[in-house]
Specification:
The chain is an alpha/beta fold and about 400 residues long. It folds into 2 domains: about 120 residues, Aspartate Aminotransferase, domain 1; about 240 residues, 3-Layer(aba) Sandwich (Aspartate Aminotransferase, domain 2). The strands form 3 sheets. The protein has a 7-stranded mixed beta sheet, with helices on both faces. Strands 1-2-3-13 form a 4-stranded mixed beta sheet. Helix 2 runs antiparallel to helix 9, helix 3 crosses helix 9 and helix 10 packs parallel to helix 12. The radius of gyration is 21 Å and the shape is globular.
């Protein structure tokens, strides 16, 4: 089905930050499969984990114990300060689990129609539940009636949250630490802390969607660790398996005991293959101290772009949280994706005017220079007419 407007390229192999197409042309991947391949392509540790596991066992179902799943749950709860985990196959499924936790929690509090407070310009997935939670009319268009039980407020607006949580049906606040699809929106440094305090005051669940920000992307294993807080529920996927599909919904305290036998499930969730890949990801991130370098690399990219694009009035903002980078232009720039492809560079444009960079966490200084050289060149050419008109 034509659910994607695909670019005219097919990749045959990858290594590190590089991809090669069927004509053996090489591309620098500054998107990581949309924040998935944090360790780059064909990482030997991931290859070995998948290969070894495939020799012994792929699937038994969650009717039985799965040793690698239990080991991964221990690793994730240890690194996140959470209590337990539900494993699934994607970020949308992880967010569905979080939504179900919130609704069950509300009913346990005697609330007949529990409502989750969510943010405008957010993105939580493509299922009916997660598009209802998503704050983007474009994603929702054509799928009405949506699920009820969601109330949207502006992102990074604590006053709006305070006004809305007076509604007695509100049982949870669900938010991305950084909005990725919405345009790489980075909130005030104390935004999550204030939400945590409001949830504590009003006995609400704090749900953090870390599908894109998690697994080291922002410079911490989880983005909320920048704020020295712990949510009640946290969702993960994308970088957790470095390309092998896996999602996780982590819970703590009162949220950890809500899903019981018969309330939720997954045929493939937490299977031996995906859990072995995720364990290899975590082990590699730890053993090679990769996350500790992320903030420095993010600053290096932004500083280099700022220097090379200095004086370009079409570039209105360059910002980052670790290796989650947004470059705002003063005009629609979706055509830049195809232009960059011609130049051997993979990027993304979100919210029409924001270039989004999500390079592998293993990118080095030489590759960063190539990335910023190439991107600044195509931005200059693309915005030339805008600058000429302005002068």
């Amino acid at each position: 089905m034509p659910t994607y407007g695909r670019l005219p390229v097919t990749f045959e192999r990858g290594e590190g930050v590089w991809l090669w197409d069927q004509s053996n042309k090489r591309y620098l991947d500054a998107l990581s499969g949309i924040a998935v391949c944090n360790l780059g392509h064909a990482h030997p540790a991931i290859h070995q984990a998948i290969s070894e596991q495939s020799k012994t066992l792929l699937h038994t179902s969650n009717l039985y114990g799965i040793a690698s799943q239990e080991k991964l749950a221990d690793a994730l709860t240890s690194k996140s300060a959470m209590d337990n985990v539900f494993f699934c196959n994607s970020g949308a499924e992880a967010n569905e689990a979080a939504i179900k936790i919130a609704r069950l929690y509300g009913h346990q509090q005697g609330i007949d129609k529990p409502c989750i407070l969510v943010m405008e310009k957010s993105f939580h997935g493509r299922t009916m539940g997660t598009i209802s939670a998503t704050g983007n009319a474009k994603v929702q268009d054509g799928f009405w009636p949506l699920l009820e039980g969601f109330s949207h407020v502006p992102f990074n607006d604590i006053t709006a949250i305070k006004k809305t949580i007076s509604d007695s049906n509100i049982v949870a606040i669900m938010v991305e630490p950084v909005q990725g699809e919405g345009g790489v929106h980075i909130p005030d440094s104390d935004y999550l802390n204030q939400i945590r305090s409001l949830c504590d005051q009003h006995d609400l669940l704090m749900i953090l969607d870390e599908v894109q920000t998690g697994i080291g992307r922002t410079g911490k294993f989880l983005a909320y660790q920048h704020n020295d807080i712990v949510p009640d529920v946290c969702t993960l996927a994308k970088g957790l398996g470095n390309g092998v599909p896996i999602g996780a919904c982590l819970a703590k305290g009162k949220a950890a005991s809500i899903l019981t036998a018969g309330k939720h499930g997954s045929t493939f969730g937490g299977n031996p293959l995906s859990c072995s890949a995720a364990l290899a990801v975590i082990d590699t991130l730890d053993s090679e101290a990769i996350i500790e370098q992320v903030e420095t690399k993010g600053k290096q990219i932004c500083t280099s772009l700022a220097n090379k694009l200095e004086g370009n009035i079409a570039v209105s903002n360059i910002r980052n949280k670790g290796l989650m980078i947004g470059i705002d232009l003063s005009m629609t720039c979706t055509d830049l994706v195809a232009i960059a492809l011609d130049h051997g560079l993979l990027i993304n444009v979100t919210a029409d005017k924001t270039i989004r960079l999500l390079p592998p966490l293993i990118i080095d200084s030489e590759q960063i220079e190539l990335l910023t050289d190439t991107l600044s060149l195509i931005i200059k050419k693309f915005t030339q007419n805008f600058e000429n008109d302005a002068t």
